[in-house]
Amino acid sequence: MSEWAVLTEEQRRFFDEHGYLIVEDALSADLVDELREAALRVQRRYRPDGVRPGEVFEWRNVLVEDPAFWQLLDYPKTVPLVWQILGWNIQLITSHLVISYPPQEETNLGWHQDGGRTVAELPQPLPRLFIKVAYWLSDTRHPESGAMEIVPGSHRLLGRPAMQNGKPVGAMGLHVKAGTAVLFENRLWHARGINRSDQPRIALFFGYGYRWLRPMDYVTMPAELLERCNPLQRQLLGADRTPHGKVLSYYIPNDNDVPLRSILAPR
Description:
Jelly Rolls; 24% helix; 267 residues; alpha+beta; 6-stranded antiparallel sheet; 3-stranded antiparallel sheet
């Protein structure tokens, strides 16, 4: 617990107002290299013939694909910030690898809010349901290097943001160096930047949401992986130990299901 990042009141106010938070130097240079190599191993495993110029390679539930990614499940510099915002009743809902190869010529950035059908089916204003942590494994400080585009404060909008010259009013690029983490919530309007540099843009997106949400890219984690986890990690992977059954535990959890509750508020 002494290693866990502590959310300051200034950070909380910034996140509430703008919908995102930048954590600089979240990953060491060695860890960036380790994760980048793991990401490229996943790509080679599923695309042994290689990728085309301009292609975007994606893989979901990437957590189970390489031991290097397990370090991020409860990563102390970022994930504690998530549960200090959302509370203790959370789990991992997605682990998503995205590698964007240059040169990309499309102009439609695909502006969207996360959550799929929740955006269409829930009434406005949308609730905050989950937070993603984006880990940048490549440098996006240079122009046209695929930096993520966001509209700060757009999580509080009713409906779509106003557009001007093909972009939402107030849009900006998150031009960050490798090793930076960015927290952003599901309601924030954002888009994938276009990569016209000479290097692939590599990022990992780990999303955490309330346990009564269905995960986006897995149903249950492999039993052999859960056996290696401590109680907190089991919670984050959707495991439960309630005598009443898994479904009820998502709505009425006991302390065995959600050890994070007693960790944060010991009795």
